[in-house]
Amino acid sequence: MRSLEEMNQLRWQSRRGMLELDLLLGPFLEEAFPHIEEADQERFIKLLKCEDQDIFGWVMEREEAQDPDLNRIVRIILDRVQPD
Predict the structure, then answer these.
(1) CA dihedral 24, 29, 31, 37 (to 10 degrees)
(2) For residues 4 and 79, what is the distance between their CA atoms, to the nearest angstrom?
(3) Quick one: which of 3, 7, 5, 82 has its CA closest to 44?
(4) Using only C-alpha atoms, what is the Rg of the chain?
(5) Most exposed: 19, 25, 30, 78, by fewest CB within 10 Å?
(6) Which helix (H) or strand (E) holds 59?
(7) Is residue 52 within 8 Å of residue 16, measured between CB atoms?
(8) Exposed, middle or buried: residue 58 (CB in 10 Å: 0-12, 13-18, 19+)?
(9) What is the predicted pLDDT for the residue at 84?
(10) Alpha-carbon distance 23 to 19, whole Å?
(11) CATH numbers and ranges of domains, the chain
(12) How far apart are CA 28 and CA 8, in angstroms?
């Protein structure tokens, strides 16, 4: 379990310069992040270090990240908002 301080830092990092990303990342952090595996939590933290334009391209499925870890967490985020 992540500390309150770490969660607050992740909340801040999840606030991006693009509304579309804010609407995906913030709710994912609050609702799904605490329940995913620790390795996937680390992938999410890694994703937050990426540039907004890159993340936007990945979540809009216009391109894929070269890093398989980033592709995995993007897929987890998208599957949450686009269930089959």
Answers:
(1) 120
(2) 27
(3) 7
(4) 12
(5) 19
(6) helix 52-59
(7) yes
(8) buried
(9) 61
(10) 6
(11) 4-81 (1.10.150.250)
(12) 14
More confident residue, 27 or 83: 27
Phi-psi region of 61 (alpha: psi -120 to 50; beta: other; left: phi over 0): left
Q: How confident is the model at residue 81 (pLDDT cuts 50, 70, 90)?
A: confident
> Within 10 A of 10 (CB to CB), how many other CB atoms are there?
19
Look at residue 41 in the predicted model and tell me its pLDDT.
Answer: 98
pLDDT given at position 48: 98
How far is CA 82 from its chain centroid? 15
Let me know if 45 is exposed, middle or buried by CB neighbors in 10 A (0-12, 13-18, 19+): middle
- Tokens linked to 39: 């390795």
